[in-house]
Amino acid sequence: MAELDISEDYEDYLAGYADILTGACATGRRLVRDELEALRGRGERAAEAGIGLRTLIHAHLVTAQAVRPQLRGPAADHLLAAITQAVDAFAEGYERAQRLAVRQEEAARREFIDDLLYGRSDLGRLAERAERFGLILAHAHAVAVAQGAEPYDDGYPVTRGIESSLLARFGDRRILLTTKDGRLICIAPGDESDVLRYFAKQAYAATDGGQVAIGRAHPGVGGVVHSYEEALNTLDLAARMHLDDPVLHAADLLVYPVLTRDRQAMADLVRTVLGPLQQARGGAQPLIDTLTAYFDTGCVAAEAARRLSLSVRAMTYRLDRIHKLTGSDPGDPVHRYTLQTAVIGARLLGWPEEGV
């Protein structure tokens, strides 16, 4: 074995080790509890000091080599067993300290993520903590949120796989990947849109066809939570509006928040324009679905009928029934805008199921 200079850096972690080996070998006994605990304690302190375990085990073996010439007969034969016990106890303490450090780091990271995404904590302190996790909150950031058929956590294979792909492709670009409420979240600098596009692609594949929403980039400490909330609202909007695109950009859907900014006005429009449809046999929902398909196909009745698995004649009958009940003709450009806006409002507000 190569010579190792056991410098003062390691003396504290080897103190009494040679005596422990000598005492155990003298009678052929196993190490006693106090000796094992002392070795575990030194292992913990070594881990906290950041000294490599391989280097320290090497130092223990070199020290044992120095003890070996002093032993004779059965005492020498027992040395290997004593070394095994001692090094095992030392490594156990070292690993115990490392596990504790990992748990503490995970707890600190989770606390930071929660504070960041909910806009809690002192903003100045939050900015300081962010640098530890690779973010400079003075810059603009954008957030992408992915959800799938099942919830995800930080330790899940899906999460680790996406994180590995991001690191392999982009390296250190101040990207933070995490999870919250079962969703995958990627935070990236506002000018790194390629990162979020790549995350969306990876997340869509890894979640077996999940959906990803990307918020707009916003500056400052509050920019992350603003973008995160936009992404969450976009996912909620997609569910209400039955938008099945794999990737949705909040910037492309700004018209919907505008329409619902005055919720009471939108509710009044829905009740006034679509309320009469509740008189139809089967209620309002089938006729709202008819209008939705009609508008989504560019007002092409034949294509709308195909989407609804109806005959063109049945589709025409429904459109005529809507005209008679509401007084608005879906085929008339003047009436069409009012009807389409009311239909969008109904979907956003969950009418008629949730009422308005």
From TrEMBL:
<feature type="domain" description="CdaR GGDEF-like">
    <location>
        <begin position="119"/>
        <end position="236"/>
    </location>
</feature>
<comment type="similarity">
    <text>Belongs to the CdaR family.</text>
</comment>
<feature type="domain" description="PucR C-terminal helix-turn-helix">
    <location>
        <begin position="287"/>
        <end position="343"/>
    </location>
</feature>
<protein>
    <submittedName>
        <fullName>Helix-turn-helix domain-containing protein</fullName>
    </submittedName>
</protein>
<dbReference type="Pfam" id="PF13556">
    <property type="entry name" value="HTH_30"/>
</dbReference>
<dbReference type="InterPro" id="IPR051448">
    <property type="entry name" value="CdaR-like_regulators"/>
</dbReference>
<dbReference type="InterPro" id="IPR025736">
    <property type="entry name" value="PucR_C-HTH_dom"/>
</dbReference>
<dbReference type="Pfam" id="PF17853">
    <property type="entry name" value="GGDEF_2"/>
</dbReference>
<dbReference type="InterPro" id="IPR041522">
    <property type="entry name" value="CdaR_GGDEF"/>
</dbReference>
<dbReference type="InterPro" id="IPR042070">
    <property type="entry name" value="PucR_C-HTH_sf"/>
</dbReference>
